[in-house]
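hey so i finally got around to running the thing on that chain from the lab meeting. sorry it took forever, my laptop kept dying and i had to restart like 3 times. anyway pasting the input first so we r on the same page abt which one it is
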Amino acid sequence: MSIRRSLAICAIVFAASGSAASAGPCAQGIDGLQAQFDSKLAANAAAGPSARESTAATMNRQPTPQSIAAAEAKLGEISPEKVQAFEAAIARARVADRTTDPSECEQALTDAQSALDQL
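ok and heres what got predicted. didnt touch it at all, straight out
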């Protein structure tokens, strides 16, 4: 199995492993956008050029969506600034969701969707 396929599978499994037990008013929207982001990273990883395997990869460590995004950014496939904008918006949405602030959460989700659309 190639590294790209492994990364894609790990990203999908990670996205699907979200906890619904602590779901707030917009947790479903957050999970949906995170899954879209992870799918986009997996698609980019499968379609784009490959890079050398990192030392961490040879030590049986599983990739995270963040490490996949970092690798994609190094290969020039996605913009690190756009990834950071998405991650910051999702983080704001999670905070707003925990504090039960639906208007802030919706705004953060709108910002995350905008960043996702630009990837």
